[in-house]
């Protein structure tokens, strides 16, 4: 290995190699749990992926019984996530609009921006405790899917604000000025020029945020409580949800219950991965021109 | 301590596209050779093949021979890392390591190559800074960050960093294009001084600069966008700027170019 | 529109049509005002939520704290449903801080390695896909990590814990007579996996910002790839990595379900983190909620308040570090 240019000393070469091995190893180390998690969930969960699981609730089914399903939980999760999005998305998008279009570098905008960052770090259990303290203990409402949605809203807002903010910043300034120059008022410019331009990006952000809050368990345990029966009304009484379904079934020592927990996990991961993939697809397929 | 470079039949690619085609030339030791030509003609790309920096870019590769005296840079047993120690490089924009002091910037290459011992390092750092005409300006603040210097000083710091490891060849890729006229003059003086020690190759956009500093000049051209760059001619600078062999060179020199 | 000269008749007609279309502009001022206040109101609502979280947690915690017969900060006992109620957060604080710090220490080097791997070692064409693979780790919900932890990781931790206990047993932290599977250490490993993606993606973002010219500066001096990383990449990204791992720390502290499923509750602080037992603020809340009396709930809310404050401080510090780096660059 010696040439006229001399060679890199063995010590340096070994260090370089060792570093490369470490980097590859680090990546492999991250892939192991990912593959293991996905494999385990599929292997254990596929057994109960049957009609009963999607068609029935756990009403009257004990832990040791076979059969039973997560119908009530799936309905609950879908309703809760829908309500969460309906509340969180407008607030978050408007907040982002304020930060990008109105706030500038003013003190209020900087404060809000800082606290949005802080909000991303709020533990989900604290969001649950807050809704418990406010909605249930102070206002005296009962456990309900809606209370769960309120808790999830707190977790969803900051992610959507950040995603929207980034997308709005990508909208070229010339576009706004072109619209202003035509005499279009600011709010119409924002609603009909800026937001539509950023739409796919915002949609991607919302889908990723939905995928994230959908798997939250802790805040739901404190706010929607728990039921084995179907409750289609998210505004009254305890409601099911996929995460709490898994939590309940997993804490039951009977194998039939454990199997249901795995299938619940498989369905939950399936929905989340679908949302993730769809978000990727939207981001790629409808990428705005000129980027 | 300066070597002759002989290039023969060199092609360079970015992915599937040929960037420069079939270049052959001889670069004399202890002299300054300037590369001139319009933007995109491949002169910087060619410069970067002379210390194997071209292949740092993903997908980039080189075919052909580059002999440094008699040793092929692209020989099978040659480590590109060792080549870059032998052939130093100064970039278009000054790029001192932002987190390092002036001293550490100059010593960076030495430490990589296993030079140890405070007094030895001190000596070499001082010598390199003196050679780079920077010592008098910075000797009282060697421990301050290199990024705090002016643009021209930063570029001389980068030159000091490059020559501290005693390379055979010094490549300069438009070293003055980001500098003001006074700093440019300082760098040009420095080049005139350094050619006594090193083989210097400089890419420049500025024809007056090529005429001022170089002994030999190579003119590169490109047939059109998307076409590879080619070497049109290389000769003594005085000849290139007075009576070049090729019409295209004369057109470019006299500003009658496209 | 002023460019329309009106020479051609159909051009005039077009201008007129546009004027008609623009007529709603007369309400522009009112619309602007309404829209601007809606946007600003939403922003203020975000601030209000944060303040409300603090306020309502305090309000609901106070009655329980007044009835408490033990020292809230130093007591290791958690018995708020008893008469008289006795509870303190010492054990919870220990478990939370210990498990998250350990998770951060395990995750950071691996995450930085991943970020460097994707940025500088893996083939460029693959970097997008590889980044996505790591992000997928973040998409797996906490409850699934818990399920997986109990079924797959916990059985494997037996041997690892014994090994660490034998080799590093002279360090008090790894000491103890009966290394187990459902320990704080196991919880840290689960947490480390969960915070890996956030640390690695933030670090990667920082590394991507290292200017190309800095990389080439070291390569041109004859640096190997690792020397390039050490000279040009790591110094540039250091504070960004510190900020990222602190954000990971905050994440780990608030993580609930996975930890609650992996840990078995044994009362009292145990410095031997390889032995079974331990509890964190968050795991204690979900485990204790169902059986909690009114005072019990208040006590849980009080502990949640402490968790809120701790994560707030950690997150603010992390953001400040990241922001300071931005000013540098």
Automatic annotation (TrEMBL), chain A:
UniProt GO molecular function: phosphate transmembrane transporter activity
Signal peptide (from-to): none
Lineage, uppermost ranks: Bacteria, Bacillati, Actinomycetota, Actinomycetes, Streptosporangiales
GO cellular component terms, A-Z: plasma membrane
Protein origin, superkingdom: Bacteria
NCBIfam families: 3a0107s02c
Keyword Cell membrane tagged: yes
Swiss-Prot/TrEMBL keywords: Cell membrane, Membrane, Phosphate transport, Transmembrane, Transmembrane helix, Transport
Gene name tied to this protein: pstA
Family under the similarity heading: Belongs to the binding-protein-dependent transport system permease family. CysTW subfamily.
Membrane-spanning residues: 21-42, 81-100, 112-137, 143-161, 190-211, 261-283
Organism: Actinomadura rayongensis
Protein name: Phosphate transport system permease protein PstA
UniProtKB/TrEMBL annotation, chain B:
Membrane spanning stretches: none
Top-rank lineage group of the source organism: Bacteria
A Pfam family matched in the record: ABC_tran
GO MF annotation list: ATP binding; ATP hydrolysis activity; phosphate transmembrane transporter activity
Keywords: ATP-binding, Nucleotide-binding, Translocase, Transport
UniProt keyword annotation of Transport present: yes
Identification of the protein by name: Phosphate ABC transporter ATP-binding protein
Source organism per UniProt: Actinomadura rayongensis
């Amino acid at each position: 290995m010696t040439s006229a240019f001399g060679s890199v000393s063995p010590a340096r070469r070994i260090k370089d190699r060792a570093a490369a091995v470490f980097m590859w190893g680090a990546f492999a180390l991250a892939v192991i749990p990912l593959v293991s998690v996905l494999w385990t969930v599929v292997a254990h969960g596929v057994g109960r992926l049957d009609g009963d699981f999607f068609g029935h609730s756990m009403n009257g089914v004990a832990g040791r019984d076979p059969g039973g399903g997560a119908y009530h939980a799936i309905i609950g999760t879908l309703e809760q996530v829908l309500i969460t999005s309906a509340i969180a998305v407008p607030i978050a998008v408007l907040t982002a609009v304020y930060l990008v279009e109105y706030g500038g570098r003013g003190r209020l905008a900087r404060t809000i921006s800082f606290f949005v960052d802080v909000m991303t770090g709020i533990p989900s259990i604290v969001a649950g405790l807050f809704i418990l303290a406010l909605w249930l203990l102070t206002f005296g409402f009962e456990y309900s899917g809606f209370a769960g949605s309120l808790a999830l809203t707190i977790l969803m807002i900051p992610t959507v604000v950040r995603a929207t903010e980034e997308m709005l910043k990508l909208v070229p300034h010339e576009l706004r000025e072109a619209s202003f120059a035509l005499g279009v008022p600011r709010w119409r410019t924002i609603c009909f020029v800026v937001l539509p331009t950023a739409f796919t990006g915002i949609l991607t952000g919302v889908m990723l945020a939905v995928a994230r809050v959908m798997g939250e368990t802790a805040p739901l345990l404190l706010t929607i409580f728990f039921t084995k029966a179907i409750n289609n009304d998210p505004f009254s009484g305890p409601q099911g949800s996929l995460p709490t379904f898994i939590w309940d079934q997993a804490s039951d020592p009977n194998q039939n219950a454990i199997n249901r927990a795995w299938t619940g996990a498989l369905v939950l991961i399936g929905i989340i991965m679908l949302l993730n993939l769809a978000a990727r697809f939207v981001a790629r397929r409808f990428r705005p021109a000129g980027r | 301590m300066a070597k002759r470079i002989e290039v023969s039949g060199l092609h360079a690619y970015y992915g599937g596209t040929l960037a420069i085609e079939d270049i052959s030339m001889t670069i004399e030791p202890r002299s300054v050779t300037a590369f001139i030509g319009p933007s995109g003609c491949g002169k910087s790309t060619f410069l970067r093949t002379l210390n194997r920096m071209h292949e740092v870019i993903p997908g980039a590769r080189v075919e052909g021979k580059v002999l440094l005296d008699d040793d092929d840079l692209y020989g099978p047993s040659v480590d590109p890392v060792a080549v870059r120690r032998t052939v130093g490089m100064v970039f278009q924009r000054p790029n001192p390591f932002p987190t390092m002091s002036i001293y550490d910037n100059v010593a960076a290459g030495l430490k990589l190559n296993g030079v140890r011992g405070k007094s030895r390092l001190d000596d070499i750092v001082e010598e390199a800074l003196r050679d780079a005409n920077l010592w008098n300006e910075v000797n009282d603040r060697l421990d301050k960050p290199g990024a705090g210097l002016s643009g021209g000083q930063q570029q001389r710091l980068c030159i000091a960093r490059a020559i501290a490891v005693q390379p055979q060849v010094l490549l300069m890729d438009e070293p003055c294009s980001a500098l003001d006229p006074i700093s440019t003059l300082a760098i040009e003086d420095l080049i005139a001084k350094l050619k006594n020690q090193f083989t210097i190759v400089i890419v420049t956009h500025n024809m007056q600069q090529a005429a001022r500093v170089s002994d030999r000049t190579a003119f590169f051209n490109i047939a059109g966008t998307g076409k590879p760059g080619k070497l049109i001619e290389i000769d003594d600078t005085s000849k290139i700027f007075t009576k070049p062999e090729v019409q295209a060179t004369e057109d470019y020199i006299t500003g009658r170019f496209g | 529109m002023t460019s329309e000269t009106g020479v051609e008749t159909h051009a005039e007609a077009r201008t007129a049509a546009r004027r008609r279309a623009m007529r709603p502009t007369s309400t522009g001022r009112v619309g602007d005002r309404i829209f601007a206040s809606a946007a600003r109101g939403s922003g203020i609502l975000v601030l209000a939520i944060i303040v409300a979280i603090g306020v309502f947690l305090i309000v609901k915690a106070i009655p329980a704290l007044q009835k408490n017969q033990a020292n809230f900060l130093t007591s290791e006992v958690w018995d708020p449903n008893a008469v008289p109620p006795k509870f303190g957060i010492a054990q919870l604080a220990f478990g939370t801080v210990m498990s998250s710090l350990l998770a951060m220490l395990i995750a950071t080097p691996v995450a930085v390695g991943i970020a460097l791997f994707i940025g500088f070692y893996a083939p460029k064409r693959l970097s997008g896909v590889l980044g996505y693979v790591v992000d997928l780790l973040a998409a797996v919900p906490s409850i699934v990590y818990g399920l997986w932890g109990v079924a797959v990781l916990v059985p494997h931790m037996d041997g690892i814990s014994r090994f660490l206990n034998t080799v590093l047993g002279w360090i008090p932290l790894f000491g103890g007579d009966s290394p187990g599977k459902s320990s704080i250490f196991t919880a840290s490993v689960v947490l480390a996996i969960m915070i890996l993606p956030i640390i690695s993606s933030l670090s990667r973002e920082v590394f991507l910002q290292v200017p190309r010219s800095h990389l080439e500066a070291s390569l041109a001096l004859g640096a190997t790839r690792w020397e390039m990383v050490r000279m040009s990449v790591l110094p540039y990204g250091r504070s960004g990595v510190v900020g990222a791992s602190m954000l990971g720390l905050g994440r780990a502290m608030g993580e609930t379900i996975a930890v609650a499923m992996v840990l078995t509750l044994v009362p009292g602080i145990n410095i031997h983190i390889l032995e079974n037992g331990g509890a964190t603020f968050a795991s204690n809340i979900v485990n204790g909620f169902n059986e909690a009396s009114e005072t019990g709930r208040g006590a849980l809310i009080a502990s949640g308040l402490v968790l809120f404050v701790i994560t707030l401080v950690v997150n603010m510090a992390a953001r400040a570090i990241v922001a300071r780096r931005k000013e540098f660059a």
